[in-house]
Amino acid sequence: MKILIVEDETKIGDYLKQGLSEAGFVVDLTRNGLDGHHLAMTESYDLIILDVMLPDVDGWRILQSLREADKSVPVLFLTARDSVEDRVKGLELGADDYLVKPFAFAELLARVRTLLRRGAVPTTDTTLRVADLELDLIRHRVTRGKRRIPLTAKEFALLELLMRRQGEVLPRSLIASQVWDMNFDSDTNVIDVAIRRVRAKIDDGFDTHLIHTVRGMGYTLDATDEA
Predict the structure, then answer these.
(1) Residue stretches of the chain with pLDDT short of 50
(2) Helix axes 84-93, 59-68, angle to 10 degrees
(3) What gap in Å lies between CA 8 and CA 29, rounded to an integer?
(4) pLDDT tens, 150-188?
(5) Is there a common fold for 2-118 and 124-221?
């Protein structure tokens, strides 16, 4: 499942992204209100974690804009503003939860999972499909045709990223930041090794190959069987 974090404090933003990525989520992180507002309005997310005090556009205005646009994505406010008035304001604007800094990551993760369960839609909407490949986001289950495909947590996150961005060529640097939460090191082959493992599980034994290498650019998942 895909989460957007809008947080201008570098340490907190990085800490959240690492923790949620390790918990199996696909995470986008932005550090200002304008970029956060743009991503929230144009991309599809299962949850948004939103700071209140942000550069340029504050969290109140971002949330208000989302609700005025009839976007029902769950929003968790994360802020140092702990007065009753602030909590009431956030909830009245349409926030789904409100967590005050400093916080324990275990509590945040529990709240994230609760919000995702509360906002869960029918299974058909939580299943990614490309050709005969299916990825069940709720049960963390992958099948191709009638074959069940076992994946590790990182392999699942990698495949989810590729399927969510079907047809896009994803550079190694983006895959590294989204799945491993690390800066890309040209000397490491961790991305290539992981792709080979997922490709072997997903494509071996099937006439149509879904995962493709685009030389000099990266990797893509597409139903068009091109080497």
Answers:
(1) 120-124, 227
(2) 30
(3) 10
(4) 999 889 989 998 998 888 888 888 888 778 765 555 566
(5) no
Q: Which of 17, 69, 9 is nearest to 38 (CA)?
A: 69
- Kindly report whether the peptide bond that precedes residue 74 is cis, defined as omega within 30 degrees of 0: no
Instruction: Tell me the chain's radius of gyration from C-alpha atoms.
Output: 19
pLDDT value at position 227? 43
State the pLDDT at residue 150: 94
> First-to-last CA distance in the chain?
29
Q: Which of 168, 161, 117, 166 is nearest to 139 (CA)?
A: 117
**Model pTM greater than 0.85?**
no
Q: How many residues does the chain have?
A: 227
- The CATH number that domain 124-221 falls under is 1.10.10.10
Pairing, β 97-100 against β 2-6: unpaired
Q: Domain 2-118 is in which class?
A: alpha beta
Chain segment 30-58, per-residue pLDDT in tens: 999 999 999 999 998 999 999 988 988 88
pLDDT of res. 180 = 73
